[in-house]
Amino acid sequence: MIPLLKVDSLKVSIRTDDGTARVLDDVGLTLERGRILGVVGESGCGKSTLIRAIMGILPKGASVDAGHVWFEGENLLVFSEAELNGRIRSSRIGFIPQDPLLALNPVFKVGTQLLEAMRWHAPDDGTRGRERRRRHVERLVGLLRRMQVPDPETALERYPHQFSGGQRQRLLIAASLACAPTLVIADEPTTALDVTTQHQILLLLRELVGEFGLSLLFVTHDFGVVAELCDDLCVIYAGQTVEAGPVQAVLQAPAHPYTRALLACHPDRAASFVGIPGRVPSPLARPAGCQFAARCGEAEPRCREASPPQARARSGADVRCVQYA
After folding, report:
1. Secondary structure (3-state) at 217
2. Which residues of 198-236 are buried (b: 16+ CB within 10 A; e: fewer)?
3. Is-contact 321 308, C-beta < 8 A?
4. Sheet containing 183-187, strands listed edge to edge, beginning at the edge strand earlier in sequence
5. Rounded CA gap, 180 and 213, in Å?
């Protein structure tokens, strides 16, 4: 069966005043239908650029140098802006942004903003004018009720500041589902929430995947969230996929030194507050060989000579490390 989403050897660079930044340098991942894939990595590893490349919203000066983004068997990288707007964004791929406050315009009512997206991207049910709007309102109210937003019947008439942070995130989850997409991309949607609300949102997302037949691409930096929510895991470092496989396989037997280092930093496992020494190499000056070699306690001379190929670890995960070549 064709995967719902497959990113294959994706390379993205951005022109800057200081030179060309190689932001993504061979990223690959596979998301099967009905599953939740977590994407993990430090800040600066390319997670946000990966999302932008999938949705076709790369910043000015960015270019895709190689690779493919296959979605339901079609390569999104060859789509025009009009095709992406008309056939993909919102209608087939929904998006949950990181900050629920910045994502909503404070001067417009919630209903005005959510209904505008449905106006352009909701599936054509044959209705027009007031009847179409009435159906959209009914669907939104139903989704808000499912998201446990208080007083869903009147919520569309309120402004964003009249909701709490957790409620605003529930509004955005409802918005991502309003046009009945098959894939939802979530960009660290629980980062700005307290622990209790975060747990509630994660449980809700898990339920929605089964209830609506969705697949979810969940970007995060928190392995605790990954363990609680995800089925599969993709670890990205310096614009490369360094390990990918089923969540339990990766968490129980991490193969790549970077994955092990990240797990060692988690509060449940960390012996101290010291993180991974060093920093992610600059995309303007990527070193030769393994990108993690300068920070790796297991590095060998050959690690700095050539980029290691993908290999299969004993856990069944795909790993980019000379130890498995």
Report:
1. strand
2. bebbbebbbebbeeeebbbbbbbbbbebbbebbbbbbbb
3. yes
4. 93-96, 183-187, 215-220, 36-40, 232-237, 240-246, 318-320, 310-312
5. 10
Which two structure tokens, joined as six digits, stand for 23?
């932001």
Separation of alpha carbons 140 and 271, rounded Å: 47
Tell me the C-alpha distance between 308 and 48, whole Å. Answer: 24
Return d(Cα 243, Cα 250) in angstroms, integer.
8
Three-state SS for 169? helix
Amino acid at 83: E
The full set of domains in the chain, from first to last, is 5-92+181-324 (3.40.50.300), 106-180 (no CATH)
Residue 217 to residue 206: CA distance in whole angstroms: 12
Q: Tell me the pLDDT tens digit for each residue of 267-291.
A: 766 566 667 889 999 999 999 999 9
Residues facing 66 on adjacent strands? 11
H or E element that contains 184? strand 183-187
Q: What is the pLDDT of residue 125?
A: 81
Q: Share the mean pLDDT of the chain.
A: 92
Q: Provide the 10 A C-beta neighbour count for residue 36.
A: 23
Can you give the pTM of this predicted structure? 0.94
Task: For residue 83, give every residue at least 6 positions away whose Cβ sits within 8 Å of its Cβ, in sequence order, or none.
Answer: none
Q: And the tokens for 119?
A: 């106006």
Q: How far apart are CA 282 and CA 52, in angstroms?
A: 19
Is the CB of residue 225 less than 8 Å from the CB of residue 47? Answer: no
Q: Residue 247 corresponds to which tokens in the numbers above?
A: 């969540």
